[in-house]
Design a protein that fits this description.
The complex is a heterodimer of chains A (215) and B (482). Chain A has 215 residues and is α/β, with parallel strands linked by helices. Chain A has ten helices and five strands; from the N terminus they run αααααβαβαβαβαβα. In chain A, strands 2-1-3-4-5 form a five-stranded parallel beta sheet, sandwiched between helices. Chain B is an alpha/beta fold and 482 residues long. Chain B has three domains: 54 residues, no CATH class; 306 residues, Alpha-Beta Barrel (TIM Barrel), CATH 3.20.20; 30 residues, no CATH class. Chain B has a four-stranded mixed beta sheet. Chain B is globular and about 80 Å long. The chains are: A alpha/beta (215), B alpha/beta (482). At the A-B interface, α6 of A face loops of B. The complex binds CO-5-methoxybenzimidazolylcobamide. CO-5-methoxybenzimidazolylcobamide sits at the interface of chains A and B.
Chain lengths: 215, 482
């Protein structure tokens, strides 16, 4: 069967979840190479979404619908993909630090990463430092994301980074942080790899980071 | 004699009809009955278990009659009293008070022009300005004391920074129940004892649920402590429509009312008659920038509707106005702040907070506080409405001066022009005068006034003894948390 990759991309930009799932299943059943489906169909669709979003032609509810479509398609595709096939779209552990109950920004960031093909393990709000470290040890994520919305809870992010160092796994992942009182300077101070001022830029910056660091 | 007269002593403004309020109220009751709320606090769960509510794990569902019963007990009037005894503030239906917001992480440094973290001195300065500016009736910290010795005790230091330079009633934020207890102890010292504080509290405690329908441990801990000591407290939902509440204003109102009503039942179970205040920062998540908007017109609309509901429920209302998403104090800031000042004032909410906020609740600006002083003046004038008694209809005068006459020199003008709003920083001069005075923009005048007040205004100070006693509570807290 001939797979119409453009159609797949369009299902992503339009956020047509069920139809996309159907098409993805069909493509796999009829022997389409999963990596090709990912690279020619799904990812270009999400790239388009990213572009429209940056230009202000697409809005949050639409973007998140597309991201959900992508994520559902990835659930189907993932078992058929090797680590290499996945490229930068790897695994992410994500949470809000201890003492902090804000979660909207974190969740939006998580959904954007799912939209970029990431498998996101959202460990929730008010997570003690050990929870981040343990999740990192257990799940070996490519990216560890932390969110803090309070001046009083920001220091937890630096502590987690230190614990990662102590556990000897700091260099195995990129650490990205965000939240209203967080700044680029603060991220540098505590030795995070990335600071994202908003959920949209988080994925973009992460992609750039991996492109630079893998070349 | 005239019959069937209806005289509007002030401007009238209402968003919801009584039938609409009832629709929202009954819908909220259904939410509490069918969906319920989650509570993460043992004592609160026990209180509900021992009542007619249905508790499953952390989820509590509440029958409507419990809500109706609780609502009968809340005060319709609370009189706050500032550190200076003459600063009384009666919270009652349609009496409006304006005040700042709290805890802004950043501040524009007025010397360097750069954004930096907010410090103790910034909060002290905000307290000074609010003390000096007549249209502010209460103080919230404006900024957060980012240089406090310990994040776990910052609330005590923040309160200290507030009371140092300010003699008006306050609304305070706290870290947890223990923090609120310390603030209350400090408040009692200032008011002259627990009983005095109970009669005329210095402050209202600011507490929030987590929309949708979740109540975390620290929030409930504060609420129960406030109930126990009869400290006025607001439980103010901060939903973002489209993210943590339905994208429709009505749906957001239903959900936040359910959150408020759950708190009203909980407080009633703990200590009937505690002074609970209804609240709400009801706004939306901007779908382009994904920010929690303080400048959206929907904030004003939903807040005014919420105030309509509060009056119908006989609850005192804590609302929001004078705030903006603009990164700096510019045209956008003024437009947005004015919009929400206007509608919040007309709605008749009792405590309107966040006046002066810019950068969607993340940036503090002392100049913004000064600009809003003028804007509150304008708004209040509009609220006064039109007096139509014989003297104001001025029939006799019109006849006397006749066609082609003048009014500038009449006694009537001499007596009445002072009812008008007298501009302070607003410029109404002619062009040449404006140029002669230095061609200053509103921004320039606001800057000058801010500096002038910071340099020259002298707020009434506390005695050294009182200061020492307050400081001891801060020090003890720091020791406990060292
Ligand atoms: C991993 O990678 C990434 C990448 C990007 C990431 C990221 C992670 N995380 C975030 N980003 C970035 O991308 C997102 C999308 O673009 C952005 O995320 P944000 O989360 O910033 O943006 C969201 C999409 C929308 N923004 C929001 O949802 C936050 C809005 C504001 C108003 C806010 C809200 C709504 C709430 N609050 Co809170 N709250 C405020 C906020 C003021 C503000 N404008 O930030 C802030 C953060 N709160 C504050 C305070 C004081 C508090 N709050 C509290 C509680 C709450 C609510 C529960 C009521 C509610 C949160 C509900 C929820 N489910 O999250 C209390 C603390 C509770 C606790 N222990 O956490 C309490 C302490 C109040 C009290 N005394 O009770 C202030 C912080 C002060 C400070 N300097 O520390 C505050 C700035 C408001 C203020 N001026 O008072 C970016 O930051």
């Amino acid at each position: 069967m001939n797979i119409d990759f453009e159609r797949i991309s369009e299902l992503i930009t339009k956020g047509q979840i069920e139809q996309l799932q159907e098409q993805t299943n069909q493509a796999i059943e009829t022997g389409t190479e999963p990596a090709i489906l990912l690279n020619k169909g799904l990812l270009p669709g999400m790239d388009k979404v990213g572009q429209l979003w940056r230009n202000g032609d697409m809005f949050m509810p639409e973007v998140l619908r597309s991201a959900k479509a992508m994520s559902k398609a990835m659930d189907i595709l993932r078992p058929h993909l090797s680590k290499d096939d996945m490229g930068s779209a790897g695994k992410m552990v994500l949470g809000t630090v201890a003492g902090d109950l804000h979660d909207i920004g974190k969740d939006l960031a998580g959904m954007m990463f799912e939209g970029a093909g990431y498998e996101v393990l959202n460990i929730g709000i008010d997570q003690p430092n050990e929870a981040f470290v343990n999740a990192a040890i257990e799940h070996k994520p490519d990216v560890l994301g932390m969110s803090a919305l309070l001046t009083t809870t920001m220091p937890r992010m630096g502590e987690v980074i230190n614990s990662l160092k102590e556990s000897g796994i700091r260099d195995e992942m990129a650490v990205i942080i965000g939240g209203a009182p967080v700044t680029k300077e603060f991220a540098d101070e505590i030795g995070a790899d990335l600071y994202a001022p908003n959920a949209g830029s988080a994925v973009e910056l992460t992609k750039q980071y991996f492109a630079q660091n893998n070349s | 004699m005239k019959i069937n007269q209806q005289i509007n002593k002030s401007t009238q403004f209402k968003v919801l009809s009584e039938d609409q309020i009832e629709q929202i109220f009954f819908a909220s009751l259904e939410v509490l009955e069918q969906t319920g709320g989650q509570i993460f606090h043992e004592e609160a769960l026990t209180l509900f278990k021992n009542s007619n509510a249905v508790v499953n794990g952390n989820t509590v569902r509440i029958p409507p009659f419990m809500v109706e019963e609780a609502l009968n007990f809340y005060p319709r009037k609370i009189t706050l009293r500032g550190r200076d005894k003459k600063n009384l503030l009666s919270l009652q239906k349609d009496t409006v008070a304006f005040g700042t917001g709290s805890d802004l992480p950043f501040t524009y440094d007025r010397e360097t022009g750069e954004r930096r973290r907010t410090r103790y001195q910034d909060v002290k300065n905000a307290g000074k300005l609010v003390d000096a500016l007549s249209h502010y009736d209460f103080l919230m910290s404006h900024g957060i004391v980012g240089d406090a010795p310990n994040p776990q005790t910052y609330d005590r230091h923040q309160f200290m920074a507030m009371v140092e330079n300010n003699t008006k009633p306050m609304v305070v934020t706290s870290v947890d129940g223990e923090g609120l207890e310390d603030l209350w102890k400090m408040g009692c010292l200032i008011q002259g004892g627990e009983e005095e504080f109970r009669l005329n509290p210095l402050f209202v405690a600011y507490i929030e649920p987590i929309s949708p329908l979740k109540n975390d441990r620290t929030a409930v801990e504060k609420l129960l402590f406030a109930a126990e000591k009869k400290i006025p407290a607001m439980y103010t939902p901060c939903p973002s429509s489209g993210a943590t509440a339905p994208a429709t204003m009505a749906g957001m109102l239903v959900q936040s009312l359910a959150e408020t009503l759950l708190a009203s039942v909980l407080c009633h179970l703990k200590n009937p008659g505690m002074p609970l205040i209804m609240g709400g920062v009801t706004t939306l998540l901007d779908m382009k920038m994904s920010t929690y908007s303080y400048g959206a017109p929907e904030l004003s609309l939903a807040s005014a509707a919420n105030t309509d509901i509060s009056k119908w429920l006989n609850l005192i209302m804590f609302s929001t106005g004078g705030c903006s998403d603009s990164k700096i104090l510019d045209e956008q800031a003024a437009a947005e702040q004015m919009t929400s000042l206007f509608y919040s004032y007309l709605s008749g909410a009792n405590l309107i907070h966040d006046v002066g906020y810019i950068d969607h609740g993340t940036n503090a600006s002392l100049e913004s506080l000064v600009l809003n002083q003028e804007m509150m003046g304008l708004v209040k004038q509009f609220g006064k409405g039109i007096n139509t008694d014989d003297d104001h209809l001025a029939l006799e005068l019109i006849e006397k001066q006749g066609p082609g006459g003048e009014y500038v020199t009449t006694d009537h003008t001499f007596n009445h022009w002072k009812e008008w709003y007298l501009p302070d920083l607003q410029d109404r001069s002619d062009y040449e005068t404006w140029v002669a005075n230095g061609s200053k923009t509103m921004g320039d005048r606001v800057k000058e006034r801010t500096q002038d007040l910071l340099d020259n205004y002298q707020p009434k100070q506390m005695t050294q003894e009182l200061k020492q006693e307050l400081k001891k509570i801060c020090d003890d807290a720091d020791k406990r948390h060292a």
